[in-house]
Amino acid sequence: MAVREKGSVKAVCKLGWYGDKCTKSCSNCFNGSCEQASGHCERGCKPGYHGAKCDKLCNTHCRDSVCNQTSGLCSDCLRTHVMDSTGSPECTDGCVDGKKGSYCQKQCPDHCYNCTDDSCIVCEESFHGDDCRKICPAKCEHGCQKDTGLCTSCQVGFYGPLCQSSCGYRCKAFDSGDQFCNFSDGACFNGCSDTVYGSSCDQNCSNTCRDQTCNDKDGTCTNGCVDGWKGRNAKLHVQLIASHVRNHLH
């Protein structure tokens, strides 16, 4: 449909459209009705929108998604929110993870799982620091302490505050093949491998133990000594003992 206006022909737009060529949508207006030239919604907005052209979203805390067309303030709040003195909804139960502000409309910084307006409270796993931008050590299990960056536990096979030390060959593996050691001091949970002993499995069995195998607590040779040696730790040479005895007798 077209109408003549001062010698020119001007189109009349279908409901929900406006502009010289009726190519602009005003579908957020109440019943899709808007002023043809400007697109202003003269009869108000449909629920969830506000603004002259109803192109702005109402706060998600507004009851039934209804807010004032001009100011955007909620007509009423959801039950978990209250109106402040300006008529805006404040969050009484805090924000969902990743949001901040009195109205929970602001985004927390990257890698910040929970925050206030001033700082990050909890970092996403694998990050730490005041602004959660520092990366935790690679072998930390389930992230690290926010303030210090120290690991609270390590991946299998590693220990120490930064999980940089390896349990290594020292620890006897479980049936699964994994080598577990104490997070703090590296003590092996399943005892030592056959060729080392001690509380930290860091002492080598004597090479005069048969197969260089010894008790993982005290280092005594579990398979006996190689030929020519004796003693709990196979440290006494048989020939030297015999020579010492002969000298003593003479």
From the structure above, extract its key features:
single chain, mainly beta, 250 residues, 1 helix, two-stranded antiparallel sheet
Describe this structure in words.
With 250 residues, the chain is mainly beta. Among the domains are: 1-57, no CATH class; 136-184, no CATH class; 192-250, no CATH class. It contains one helix and 20 strands. Residues 1-7, 81-85 and 238-247 have low confidence and may be disordered.
Structural class: mainly beta
- The portion of residues forming beta strands comes to 15-25%
Rg from Cα? 39 Å
Low-pLDDT stretches are 1-7, 81-85, 238-247
Summarize model confidence as the mean pLDDT: 79
Strand order of the largest sheet: 1-2
* Sheet having the most strands: 2 strands, antiparallel
Shape: rod-shaped
Helix content bin: under 10%
Please state the oligomeric state of the protein chains shown: single chain
Intertermini distance: 136 Å
What is the strand tally?
20
Total count of helical runs of at least 4 residues? 1
Q: How would you spell out the order of helices and strands?
A: EEEEEEEEEEEEEEEEEEEEH
Task: Give the secondary structure arrangement, pairings included.
Layout: E1 2-5, E2 8-11, E3 17-18, E4 24-25, E5 49-50, E6 56-57, E7 81-83, E8 89-91, E9 99-100, E10 106-107, E11 112-115, E12 120-123, E13 127-128, E14 134-135, E15 158-159, E16 165-166, E17 196-197, E18 203-204, E19 229-230, E20 236-237, H1 238-249
Summarize the structure.
The chain has one helix spanning 238-249, and strands spanning 2-5, 8-11, 17-18, 24-25, 49-50, 56-57, 81-83, 89-91, 99-100, 106-107, 112-115, 120-123, 127-128, 134-135, 158-159, 165-166, 196-197, 203-204, 229-230, 236-237.
